[in-house]
Design a protein that fits this description.
This protein is an all-alpha fold. It has helices at about 1-20, 25-30, 45-55, 65-70, 75-85. Helix 3 packs across helix 5 (about 75-85). The radius of gyration is 14 Å and the shape is globular. The N and C termini lie close together (about 10 Å).
Amino acid sequence: MLEGAARKRKFAYFGHVMRHESLEKDVMVGTFYGKSRHGGQRRMWTDDITDWISEVFDRKVSLIECIRMVEDRDLFREVIQFAGT
């Protein structure tokens, strides 16, 4: 129950941010150049979004495809219904 609520909030926040042009969107989607950190690659919270949507479609979905999906609100709502449960 708690995980479902967290998924719903993450999807809602992702949809809100991706529909607007903002610095926050640039930070989430963009990459930063400079010195790389030591150690393994860290998991980003957008990876959760792509994984959950990939489960719905039974194939790997890229972050760009997820962003395009957000632009069609009706489609994104349907995806959230399946992924949130």
